[in-house]
Amino acid sequence: MAILFEYFFNGAVLGIMYALVAVGFTLFFGVLDVIKFSHGDVLTLGAFSGLVAFLALQLTGLDLPVIGLVIVLVAACIVTGLVGAAIGQFFVIPMRNSSAFNILLMTLMIGTAIREAIRLFYPTGANPKAFPALLPNSPVEIGGVFLRLDSLILLALGFAIVFLTHWLIRHTKLGLAIRAVAQDGDTAQVMGIPFKQTVLATFALGSMLAGIAGVMHGIYYSEINFGVGLLLGIIGFSAAVLGGLGSIWGAIIGGFAFAALQTIWVVLFPDASGYRDVFAFAAIIVAMTIFPTGIIAERYSERV
Amino acid sequence: MSLLRVGSSVAIIALAVIWTVIVLAAESQWQVLAALVVAAVAIFAFSRMRAGRDLAFTLNDSGPSIIAIIPLAVLVVAFAIHQDHFQLMMLASVLIYGIACVGLTVQFGYAGVINFAGAAFFGIGGYTAAVLGSTGVPSLLTLLAGGLTAAMIGCIIILPVLRTKGHYAALITIAFGLLFRSFLEVNHTLGGPQGLKVEGASIAGRSLLNGIQLGTLEPSFYFNYVLLALAAFTLFFLLARNLEKSWIGLNLDAVREDTIGASVFGINVAAWRIFAFVAGNFLIGVAGALFAMMQNFIAPSNFTFSDSLLMLSIIVLGGIGNLWAVLPAAILVVVLPEKLQGIGEYRIFVFAILVVLVLRFRPAGLFPRSMRQFRREVGQ
């Protein structure tokens, strides 16, 4: 029983990371109807800029635990936000009227360029890098189950970010603008909403979520690798699509569903845990057959 | 007038052949870079000049015999480099990737069915060849079996693709590609991450590993693989081109451009999508089997998501739906990274940026597909 709870808990930490990535995909799709596939590599970039910020902090001798985490997160958010907005400004917005496939392929290639740039230009970037333990990782006992304290904090942090994002979308002026542009870009413009700024802000916001997810990933596994972005990006995309593109709650459900699939497989067949991803992706394909537009269906899925 | 038109077309193709030989045989980075600049200028110039339009017209509107140009041009290149193993292997790889991209063109260029799992179907063909190789099945049958296995697995994957649209359909093929790769990594019967050894091809009892003697020439054994790949490429190219020109191609165009409109006119959209996807996967599977035989060895790392992207880059760079663009684009995508080894580490980075720039500033590809001409079909 205790071991089951541990599996459940680790699955939940994975789920919240996937959900953060998926929310980014859903935001981009909401405002521009595009899939920005460089998202996963923006995540890696966030993790690496967090790492650089930590190393810089160490050099100056300011090694305080809580402030360290905050500064790492802020650094990751600034870099990913800027890069996300730049990709939107120079590549996605000018291309928004071309075919979905062209944008998909182009952003995949931008992601490849970012990934390769990290590998080539970060000192010995091809090797996995140790990520600093920014949170206390002493075990905590809850009802006979030992959990890592840092994972607990990560889970809470992830939920806080998700609720903050939801609040931002629902209850601020920027959120109102984002929702208006998502519903109908042209009408929103007629109503005096600055289209371009709103889209860029959305791109920055979504990319910041990826940056945070990247730092969380680094802390959780205590290492970071230039290649993690590709798989995490595709998992996040699967989660967003599974939940139904354009819906924030759908993305969160999708993220947890994907983590649940992986965890269930490992619990059921601990000997064949290597097949975890095979099972998860096969289940995604079956789920898409049953729910062709995701679990929470797109509101305007049929545009005839 | 017509003679002039054909003359300028032949001249352009001759220049392209010479260019290919120079690039394949180039020794230094600067030669390759210079050739690249020349090609960029030439493509830009010809696409604006009359000669370029004439070439497109000659290639698209002549009868099936025009296809003889392909074996002719490739043979000239192959003879020019007949002694060098590595250069011939690259030429054969270009042709093999060309076959796979003809398959992708049928799927995406004609019917509009997107396939992000090209490398997976390529791998299915390759692993079929590896498994059958030790059983003594004739090589040509193995090629066929590789294609059929890929087509059969495609039959299963097309079902969820048919039920979904756009990004959702893209996800299914992406998921399948990743699933296939991680399956190979952990499956020990198929060699796991170390991969499998593959028997080389042999035709009529003669192993292709023994070089053939052509008069006084003694070409490398890769020359045989160039010939085999060339034969397969020419055959499939001819079939695909005839398909495009026939009523089937017309139906596929209708399905791609306007699904609802096509179904209103009584075209069975689902049936044509299945047809295009399965036929395309057959070609990709054959190409994969041929590739495995030539390499003598396959591993999961040959069939990653990036390789699927590489294949799609070929058809996008060339111009989606334009069969004639497949070979030139395959040369760019397959040969240049190998030739730019000196840039070494940086070549994937450079290549990714190149594709991004082409998509950003020339989204229809280097050689856009020309419009279907109805004049002859209607009858003058």
Distance between the termini of chain B: 20 Å
Widest sheet, order of strands of chain B: 1-4
Strand content of chain B: under 5%
Number of distinct helices of chain A: 11
The residue fraction in helices of chain B comes out at over 70%
Produce the secondary structure layout.
The complex is a heterodimer of chains A (304) and B (380).
Chain A lengths: L1 H31 L6 H22 L4 H28 L7 H22 L7 E2 L8 E4 L2 E4 H23 L1 H11 L1 H6 L4 H27 L1 E2 L3 H16 L4 H21 L7 H15 L14
Antiparallel strand pairs in A: 1-4, 2-3
Helix pairs in contact in A: 1-5, 1-6, 1-8, 1-9, 1-10, 2-3, 2-4, 2-8, 2-9, 3-8, 5-6, 5-8, 6-8, 9-10, 10-11
Chain B lengths: L1 H24 L3 H20 L1 H12 L7 H12 L4 H26 L7 H16 L5 H25 L2 H21 L9 E2 L4 E2 L2 E2 L14 H24 L1 H11 L1 H6 L4 H27 L1 E2 L6 H14 L7 H14 L7 H15 L13 H4 L2
Antiparallel strand pairs in B: 1-4, 2-3
Helix pairs in contact in B: 1-3, 1-4, 2-3, 4-9, 5-9, 5-12, 5-13, 5-14, 6-7, 6-8, 6-12, 7-8, 7-12, 9-10, 9-12, 10-12, 13-14
Q: What's the quick description here?
A:
Chain A has about 300 residues and is mostly helical. Chain A has helices at about 1-30, 40-60, 65-90, 100-120, 150-170, 175-185, 185-190, 195-220, 230-245, 250-270, 275-290, and strands spanning about 130, 140, 145-150, 225. In chain A, helix 5 (about 150-170) crosses helix 6 and helix 9 (about 230-245) crosses helix 10 (about 250-270).
Describe what you observe in this structure.
The complex is a heterodimer of chains A (304) and B (380). Chain A is mainly alpha-helical. Chain A has a domain at 20-227. Chain A is 73% helix and 4% strand. A two-stranded antiparallel sheet of chain A has the order 1-4. In chain A, helix 5 runs antiparallel to helix 8 (195-221). The longest helix of chain A is centred in the first third of the chain and has 31 residues, at 2-32. Chain A is globular and about 60 Å long. The N and C termini of chain A lie far apart (52 Å). Chain B is mostly helical and 380 residues long. Chain B has one domain (63-378): ABC transporter involved in vitamin B12 uptake, BtuC, CATH 1.10.3470. Chain B is built from 16 helices and 4 strands. In chain B, strands 1-4 form a two-stranded antiparallel ribbon. In chain B, helix 7 runs antiparallel to helix 12 (269-295) and helix 13 crosses helix 14. The longest helix of chain B has 27 residues, at 269-295. The two termini of chain B are 20 Å apart. The interface between A and B is large, with 43 and 41 residues.
